[in-house]
Design goal:
- It is a single chain.
- This protein is α+β, with helices and mostly antiparallel strands.
- The chain has 6 helices and 5 strands.
- The protein has a 3-stranded antiparallel beta sheet.
- A hairpin with a 4-residue loop joins β2 and β3.
Length: 199
Amino acid sequence: MGFTVLASYRVAFNNGKTRTISRCRCDCGNLFSARAEHLKSGNTQSCGCLRNAVLKVASERKKGIRKVEVQPSNPRSPLYYTFLSWMNMRLRCLYPSCKQFKDYGGRGITICPQWDTFEVFLADMGERPQGLTLDRVETDGNYEPGNCRWATRKEQQANRRPERAPRPPHSAETRAKISASVKKTLQTQKSPGSDAPGA
């Protein structure tokens, strides 16, 4: 789920502050307005239909259509944390303003089209088990069925992509040449009369 910005304009509020408001068309077809900074940060990703879809599923489960298990130590259901994982996945891959974008969307990691809808993601992955988070089996692969799992922090650390090999140190001869070159440059830049009084 996403949106298209149709127009943006500045609005002055009673407190004297001004904000940029964008008029958007949601992928579901609805028109809505939102603050531009919320769109940029990813806090707003739809007209509200995403939230309504989650609430609908939660409501069905509470009515007995699907059972909801709430952790005794946490009042929020597993469905909430599943939705949170889905949202974070989208932020990492689709929003350059996200701090983690460079490690995901910035290096070509994408999300399969069917997972643009939370309910499809939920059907494919199931609810997020307690203590686990979303992980890709192949770290250079995309977020898609068959390449994603719920994993522990330890499993994810063991599955991290290898770091770039460190650059080998310079040889003693190279270090001596660099040092001599730096000294020569400094001596050339130093003015002959720079130490004289009143210079």
